[in-house]
Amino acid sequence: MNKPAKLGRVHALKVVRVGNSAGVILPKEVLAKLRVALGDELSISEVPGGIALTRHDPGFEEQMKTAREVMARRRNALRELAK
């Protein structure tokens, strides 16, 4: 099993079999830092140098969808503002 993690330090997690899939066991300190519990959803995203694991926020996804639509419609105006 994975050993408890101390945040602020690099620690290794072992990939384990979960039914027909694979997963990692997150130490309780990581769950506390993410403010999640059993049954909660997490989001994973690519960031420079690796990945980020965050608590899932469906409201944020809707906001980003709207922002992308506005940016697509107002591309020229945003390009001018960026100068």
Automatic annotation (TrEMBL):
Annotated keywords: DNA-binding
Domain SpoVT-AbrB: 16-61
Record bears the keyword Nucleotide-binding: no
SMART domains according to UniProt: SpoVT_AbrB (SM00966)
A Pfam family annotated for this UniProt entry: MazE_antitoxin
Domain of life: Bacteria
One term of GO molecular function: DNA binding
InterPro entries (UniProt xref): Doc_partner, SpoVT-AbrB_dom, SpoVT-AbrB_sf
Segments crossing the lipid bilayer: none
Keyword Hydrolase found: no
NCBIfam families, per the entry: doc_partner
Protein name per Swiss-Prot or TrEMBL: AbrB/MazE/SpoVT family DNA-binding domain-containing protein
